[in-house]
Each structure stands twice: as structure tokens, then as C-alpha cells.
Amino acid sequence: MKRETFVILGIVAGLILWLLLAGDYAIARSNRAMIYALLALSFSLLAGRLGWFSLCQTTLAGVSGYVIAILGAQQGLPYAVVIPAAILTSVAFAAAFGVLTMRAKAVSFLMLTLALGQMVWALSFQWVGLTGGYNGISGVRLPMVLGFNLNDPRIFYVMLATCTVLIFLGVHRLYRSRFGLLLLGIQENEQRMRALGHPVYLARFTAFVLAGAIAGVAGVFLVYDMGIMSPSPLSLSQAVLVLTAAVLGGYRTIWGPALGAVILISLQTGVAQYTDRHMMVIGLVLALCILLMPRGLSEFPWTSLLRGRKASTAST
Amino acid sequence: MKKLTTIAIGSASALAIASFVTHADDNTLRVGVIGPTSGVFSFFGEQQRMGVELAMEEIGDQVAGYDLEVTFYDSQGDPEVTVDRLRAMDSRDDVDIVVGPVLGSTGLAGLEWAGGSGMPTVISYSAPEDITMRDRVDNVVRAGWTGAQPMFAFGEYVAEELGHEDIVMVGQDYSFPYDQLGGFMRGFCAAGGNSVERIWHPLDTADYSSILATLPDGDAVMYNGAGSDGIAFFQQYHDFGIDQRMPLIGGSNFFAVGDLPEMGEQAKGGVSALQYAEGLETDNFIAFRDAFWDMHGEDTMPLAPAEHGYVALKMAVNAVEEAESLDREPVIAALRDTEMEDAPRGPFHLDEYGNPVQNIYINEVKEVDGRLVNVPIETYEEVSQFGPYDPEEYMASDSYSRDFPPDDCSDDFYQQ
């Protein structure tokens, strides 16, 4: 796997170079982009391998954010307890949601995750005693460690980039493993996989919980990045943003979600600087991209285009 | 696999271009104004923007030898976006002073960020108490109000002047109405009120028949909310004929001037309380209103968010003139010493916690020159965010919530 090592080194070098070159605001935006890349990866794991479009990955991230805010900022528990607890809570929610959605097919799965996500969102709004309601919980901060302020965008970037690269690498391995192939097989022909003796429901459930754990990690970074936890990250518009990033980048590939998140955040940043109507511009770009590249940017046959060959549809 | 690196580098450079850094020019005072100019709450953000534009015209381009540059940012009414825009102001656009945010949750997000960054910030319309109370930070002051501030006086007025003893309150179920009711109950109970029965309903309720059909008896009903919910409640309240039995009074924004045409003639006589009234007849207010009309047209009435945005920018500019520098420390010190004798809403100064001590007007809906407006019928002067209470004791008690303070005025809480 020499080539893979090269690619990884290239990415790490790129991330370090970016850290040295970019301004503070660009770093803050990169942090946001990486968080959304993780969320889009969590979405793509289900969408690309199982054909399951989930609208509750942001909810799972939000749940972990609330655990951080409540246990960390309000109760003042130590970080070593709070962060694992947050990720475990996301996993527990994912397990509960997984039991409910395991047998659902494409559209009913989408509707179920929508309903579950919106329920948690409504709860976060109305259970004021626990969540602070509309005002949220503020004062969510990382500590000083060895004289480093972990809230500093650049130090935050280092931690976040390390986690993001590791998680993407892990999922990349997973896609190539027997388990990853089994998931693809289930998407292609569930009956046959079952006939071959594979534990179909267990595999699906495991994938869902795994995606939940990734969302949980993203939620931890999201809440520390914002410094305040409110219902807004759990809202439907955030779920749609993640879906958009994954579809734009191409949810079947490993780098598609990252690419989609980076482009979406760059567009938001760049266009919002010039007009309040930036959503219109972004919508237009997205509509064009999806019309021209229905499988996402990462599966568009760029190389054939460059060589002037007739573009052929890529196959998975 | 080569594609991957190409893509990574390509997107990285895209981000680099997107986040192009503008260079700092030391002779410019940059003010960043943040509010929701798109989305559901864009009305408030637009009002603030119009108020700020009026202040800009009056100030001109020069402040204490600095060129004044004001930039507007859209918070979309979302805390996450707010934090992001504030970061952009600080690290990309080199802003010196922030004006805004406007809404409750974005105000708290702004406070959280400002506490970490040290940016001099003048919060405009955003009303959560803790911005200038339990969570206050040195570099954040407020041009507007807290949710409870106008309601101490209103509670007192309702008990003493209107003589109501038992109130039934119907309100929107979120933190701003909790604060409003909290202030109301303190004033109401201290002035001889008896009890307040509370009924909360979720935001965006269109049908109130189940509430109205089982409404308990009292001397008056207070609707503690605003916007489309308020209009729907108002209309159904009259359709049910309950106005014959119990008069309807409102929270601070219930009889907002934009909603009055929809409420119609029946709104006349409705009372509420605010630190602002578009029916004020002081010279300062009329000058402000006429200038606002000249700039934005007579169809748009300047409301409290517009006045607070206008005042907030003036506070920022005055602080720089006072400090004769853009350094944060002297600017913050000057901001905290703000005294505005000639604010359109009436004179105010900041208390030591950074919130205005100002007039509270009890307003009644009246028809003036063919339009329905809130006309002050009683003025309570020099009301602070703590009302008549001792700041330390006030902050030692819990924040207002769904069921705090207690319903019954004979509770120990009111006997301090």
C-alpha cells in the first residue's frame, strides 16, 4: 500500500501547510468545514454503503453537544469524563434509533430519521430545565493544557484535523474490509446476502451505530467550536446542509463528503462576504452541480474530460 | 489516488481565496453591525439596520479623526452563524467595535464569544438578563433592555392603577416571556396583586380554542407573547367574546405597531409597557422619527429595535470620541460610562453592570393621525434592570423559568 501512504502524507502535509499559511478566520472556517466533513462522512457511511438516507446524523451530533454542555459547562465534571460520556450518549441514541429503523426501507427510513430527529429537536427547545431552551447553554470551553489554550483556533485545528484524518482513514479501511463489502452487498441484494448466511440486520445495526459514533465525535468538536449549545445545530436545515454536502461531493466515495463540506463552507464564506442573499447563489451553484454531476464531484469522470475523451459514466 | 491530492490542494486554495484577508488601515474606525437581515426574524434585523443607517448619516464619515466604516453582517437569527460572523469581524475584517446582536439566543452566543475575544460590544435589542447580570463581562454593554425591566413597572401599574388582583396569563413557551412574566410578578405582587395563573403554549400555535374554552376566571388576561401568535390569540379572544368578561392586556411586544392594523379598532385601549413608545411627543423623539421617515419613508414606523440600533452606534462612536483612540481598554471604559441625555426614547445612563437605567412607559393603543400607535399614559423614571431591588440579592435568586417565580403572591419569595 505504498500509494496510500503517499496520499496520506500528502494530505497531512497539505493540512500543515494550510495551518502555517492561512489567516485566523480561514482557520476558523476550516475547523467548521472539518466538522461538517465528519458529519457528511457519518451520513455517507449509511447513504453510500446501505442506500439509507438519514436526516438524524446532526441530531446525534447535537445530543453529544448537549451532554458536553450539561455535564461540562453546567455540572463542571472533568473533561476525561465528559467527552467519553458525550460520545457514548450518541452511540446509545444511535442504538435506540437503530433498533427502530433497522427494518425500514429507503423512504420509510428517511421519514423515520426525520421524525426522530425532529422529536429530539423539539425536546431540546421545550425541555428548558435541562437544555436552556431557545437560549441554550453557554460557557462551553476547553481547558488550558500545559500552557496551551485549547480554544485557540489553531490548536483546535490541530486536534480536529488529527481526529478527522484518523476517522476518514478508519472509514476508508472499513469500506475495503469484508464488513464494508457486506454492506454494499446488502444494498445490492439483501435477499442473497441473507441466503448466504450473513447477519443482515446486525450488519446494518452496526453500521448505524458506527455512523452515530462519528456524529458524536463531530458533535463534541462542534460544541467546543461554538462555545454555546442551542437547538440550532439540531434543526432540519442543518440536516439538509449535511445531506447537501454529501450529495455534492459524492457520498459513495471516501473523499466525497470532505470535498462537499469544504466546497459548501467555502461558498458560504466567500459569497456571504458580498451579499445577504448568499443562499440564492449557493442554491444555484448546487442545482447546476447536481444537474451536471448527479453522482457528485468525486465521481465525475474528470480524467476523461481532461484527456478529451468522451465522458463515460463511472461505475461503483 | 492522485486525484485526491489534486482535489485537496484545489479546495484548499479555494478556501484561501474565499477567506481573503483585508488589510488593517489604522486610521479607520470599523464598526460591525450584526442582526438577522434574513430569515423569520428579519423584521428586527431590518429595523436595526435602518436605525443604524440613520445614525451613520447624522455622524458623517469622520469620528475623532478616524474614518468611520460601518459594515452589516447577517446573523440569520442563528447562534452558530452569529459566532461565525463575529469571528469574521475580529480576525478577517479587523472590526473595532461590534453593534448587535438583536435576538435572545444570538445575544447570548455573542456574549459568549465576546467574553473570549475581548471585543468592545454594544448589544442592541437582545434582552436576556444574564448578558448584563450573572454572566456579564467587562467589554459587553447594552443599549436596550432586559426582558423583565419594563415589566416591574407594568405589574405595579396593573395592580395599583387598574386594580386587578388576579391575572390569567397566556404566553409563548420560551425564555423571553418567562423573563417578562418574572418582572411583572415582582412588581405586581409588591403592589398588592394576588395571583397569576399561567398557561404556556408552544410557539407557532394557530388555534387557541382549547385554551380559551377553559380559561379560568380572573380580573384580566395578559397575553405574554407577540407576532403571528399574538394576532391569532387577539382575534380568537374577541371571537369568543371573552373581552366582554375580562380586559386583555399585553406583554411588551403584544401591541407592536406592525400588528395593530391587523388587530384593528378593537386593539384601542390595550395597555402594555416598554422603554420605548412610538407615540412619544418629546422633541428628541419627534426629531428622530421625522429624520427616520425622511430616510426610509413614512410607511415604516421606527420601533424599539431601530432606536436601539441607532443609539448603539452613537454609543460606540461617542466612546471612541471620549477615548480618542481605538485601543480596547479606553474604549470599553468610555462605553461603560455612557450617558445619553438626548436619546430618542428619553435620557438614560448605564448602571455599573452595563445596562441602561431608563424611562419605562405604560403605553395605551390610541389612534393618532389615522394610525394606531402606542401612546405613553404613564412614565416611570430611572428604572434599572433590577427594578427597585438590590442587585446582589436579585442576582442571587434563580433565573426566571416556566414556573418561577411562584404563582401566588403570598409566597415567601415575595416577602423579602
Element order of chain A: H for helix, E for strand:
HHHHHHEEEHHHHEHHHH
CATH topology of the largest domain in chain B: Rossmann fold
CATH architecture descriptor of the largest domain in chain B: 3-Layer(aba) Sandwich
Let me know the CATH homologous superfamily of the largest domain in chain B: Response regulator
Structural class of chain B: alpha/beta
Principal-axis shape of chain A: globular
Which segments of chain B are poorly predicted (pLDDT under 50) over 5 or more consecutive residues? 18-23
Beta strands of chain A, count? 4
Q: Largest beta sheet of chain B: what is the strand line-up?
A: 2-3-1-4-5-6
Number of helices, counting only DSSP H or I runs of 4 residues or more of chain A: 14
In helices, the fraction of residues of chain B equals: 25-40%
Rounded mean pLDDT score of chain A: 89
Task: State the major sheet of chain A.
Answer: 2 strands, antiparallel
Distance between the termini of chain A: 21 Å
Q: State the total count of DSSP E strands of chain B.
A: 15
Mean pLDDT of chain B: 91
Rg for CA atoms of chain B: 22 Å
The number of domains of chain B:
2
Strand order of the largest sheet of chain A: 1-4
Oligomer: heterodimer
Distance between the termini of chain B: 73 Å
Protein architecture, described:
The complex is a heterodimer of chains A (316) and B (416). The C terminus of chain A is likely disordered. In chain A, a hairpin with a 2-residue loop joins strand 2 and strand 3. In chain A, strands 1-4 form a two-stranded antiparallel ribbon. In chain A, strands 2-3 form a two-stranded antiparallel sheet. Chain A has 316 residues and is an all-alpha fold. Chain A has one domain. Chain A is globular, with a radius of gyration of 20 Å. Chain A is built from 14 helices and four strands. Chain A starts with a helix and ends in a 10-residue tail after the last helix. By secondary structure, chain B is of the alpha/beta class. Chain B has a six-stranded mixed beta sheet with strand order 2-3-1-4-5-6, with helices on both faces. In chain B, strands 11, 12, 13, 14 and 15 form a five-stranded antiparallel beta sheet that branches. In chain B, strand 4, helix 4 and strand 5 form a beta-alpha-beta unit. In chain B, helix 2 crosses helix 11 and helix 11 crosses helix 12. Chain B is globular, with a radius of gyration of 22 Å. The relative contact order of chain B is 0.14. About 1% of the residues of chain B have low confidence.
